[in-house]
Amino acid sequence: MEQSSQWWRDAVIYQVYPRSFADRDGDGMGDLPGITGRLSALRDLGVDAVWLSPFYPSPQHDAGYDVADYRSVDPRFGTLADADAMIAEAHALDLKVLVDLVPNHTSSAHAWFAAALAAAPGSRERDRYIFRDGRGPGGDEPPNSWRSVFGGPAWERVPDGQWYLHLFDVTQPDLNWADPEVRAEFESVLRFWLDRGVDGFRVDVAHGLIKDRDLVDWHYPSAILGGLGQEGPPPPMWDQEEVHEIYQQWRSVLDTYPGGRILVAEAWVKPAERLARYVRPDEMHQAFNFEYLDTPWSAEPLRKVIEQSLAANDAVGATTTWVLSNHDVVRHATRLGYPVGEARRHGIGVDDPQPDTALGLRRARAATLQMLALPGSAYLYQGEELGLPEHTTMPDEYRQDPAWFRSGHTERGRDGCRVPIPWEADSPSYGFGPSDASWLPQPASWAEYALDRQRGVAGSTYELYRTALRLRRERGLGSAALSWMDAPADVLAFRIGEVTVLTNFSDAAVELPVGGEVLVSSEPLDADGRVPTDVTVWVG
Ligand code: GLC
Fold it and tell me: Which of 113, 370, 385, 398 counts the most CB atoms within 10 A of its CB?
């Protein structure tokens, strides 16, 4: 394959969360025309591509990850013509477009599920999903012990007594990937969007499609959104060997299209060698490195995860895909404002311990500057370029994440990272839309994060991202080789191409690496020209 069609190997891809990016019609919910109108801002920022979370028809029980029709657009977000216009505008701006594919489950509002409910046990209609008889007297007990990722049992009983599996919300029945019709349908969905010109797919829950044949019991928490700390024997619902055949098949479909169309795996899998199996030469192109996202703010653990990820991906000829924030995790500007080594929180509410916001932002800037110097590709989540924190004091009555409800109100969930982003400090809804409406409330303190307060302002987080993205491109950092340098304790230093990158995790300022000019620094150096605590610097 020629080099130019391997654009993903070092690309920086910006995640747009359609509900919260830009609202054209003023109903408080973002939409496709809103996104189209703001794409040039992403061109200015300097990213290579955008990935859009789902915008398909959906009852929105899981913010669109419950898809009722894979070939259309939810009227809340616009029309298919709006999707075409968005793709065309992105391409005119030289931005690639990835869309989200949700193959593990449909919405319970999908025509297939309605047909399954209307049909009898043992029917072809039921076989597209995972229906089973229950256990115990009268089949009153669920078929096995599995728990939903969002809390509660993973099985729901239907009126005729059978149960269906839902690893997520009860409105998200899991598909049966042993069924040839399910496979054929998703190939056709891939082609539908490829024919419309998309450059690839982010594949939701890519490690979950195949379940253990016997659905054996499993008594451990379903570690996914909460992190990768899997206990016990290999889980029977994640990372099963046969899942790879599906991606080999999809790859052969993508390869018939010109221009380097890609698949990126959302697979909460570790260790790095297991994850790298998803990006073997005949499978996907990228897989989010969530182990990196979950690593504490500390030199040695970060060095280890970087080293192991690069080695594991190198062994299969893939590059590594770095990420610090997305729509499922507490934003890194907030995460890093908690004591180092604490378990990652699954949402934050007003009565939870609050983060140190200034420390979080300082470390987030240093973390991003480190990430953008690493070889491979990187994903940014909308708003992180503004230094946006999580909304950590959202009143609970606004919450919509099914995890909040299914956990019996013990996990605040993900609404805090999904709040509509601020564009203009002095406009209604901070310029998110033409009105004050916003589907989740925006904190009163967000004017200071607005793009128009940061654009052109030296030292702002926005200008830091822009500078880093420009230098990364100019110096070819994404495709250069990394070598570690000797450094004092609690300091991480590496060479990447002609650039030296140093992050100081220690309590005291450290000397700059010898020679060279400071290209960019996450905070100013101290009066003696040394690198302060929690700062990353690029020297070239
Ligand atoms: C993925 C999505 C998440 C969604 C879940 C179920 O983890 O990123 O937002 O809730 O899958 O589709």
Answer: 385
